[in-house]
Amino acid sequence: MTTDAAEESGAHPRFAEALKELGLADLLPRVRRFPDATRTADEAAAAIGCELSQICKSLIFAADGVPVLVLMDGASLVDLELVRRELGAGKVTRARVELVRETTGYAIGGVPPFGHRTRTRVLADRSLLDHDVVWAAAGTPYTVFPMDPKTLVAHAGGTLVDVREQHL
Q1: What is the pLDDT of residues 50-90, one digit of tens each?
Q2: Burial, 118: exposed, middle or buried (Cβ in 10 Å; 0-12, 13-18, 19+)?
Q3: Phi-psi region of 88 (alpha: psi -120 to 50; beta: other; left: phi over 0)
Q4: Measured in whole angstroms, how far is the alpha carbon of residue 97 from the centre of its chain?
């Protein structure tokens, strides 16, 4: 795959290369690029015209200082206590901007669910499986791609868990 093909798709070149390595190059034509940012789940859902819960957020946290990726549906929040228990960690916090970039190679708002610079532990909330298709960032704050959630979680190397905040 050439850089030109990656640029034409709108996907970040590293993410386009990751798709190729995973045998998913056929996804590149399905990457959608928007003129306005899709950094937040709200922005992405509005641009795509889908339900907020069909957005797959890729969020980096620090569990006792070690990066962990949590994949969460766009309509929900991550319950840090549930993540802490799931990992057996002492403390879980939102990762600092520098740690996100260092771990994934992408800027916040464009972090895809896989194709990262380093290998991290991945937790995927079961709520993602409520949909036939979810949309995730394709490496930039302006690009997204569709994928069935089971395949997405499998390619991310994710463990299915229940870590979303429960509203009483």
Answers
A1: 999 999 999 999 999 999 999 999 999 999 999 999 999 99
A2: exposed
A3: left
A4: 15
In the block, tokens 């190059």 appear at 25
| Cβ–Cβ under 8 Å, residues 12 and 110 | yes
Q: Closest Cα to residue 17, out of 32, 38, 1?
A: 1
Looking at the predicted structure, is the pLDDT value of residue 167 above 80? no
Task: Region of 16 please: left (phi>0), alpha (psi -120 to 50) or beta.
Answer: alpha
pLDDT digits (tens, 9 = 90+) for 105-161: 999 999 999 999 999 999 999 999 999 999 999 999 999 999 999 999 999 999 999
Provide the token pair at 164: 């979303």
Residue 24 falls in which region: left (phi positive, over 0), alpha (psi -120 to 50) or beta: alpha
φ, ψ dihedrals at 37, nearest 5° = -60, 145
Q: DSSP 3-state helix, strand, coil percentages of the chain (rounded to 5)?
A: 35, 25, 40
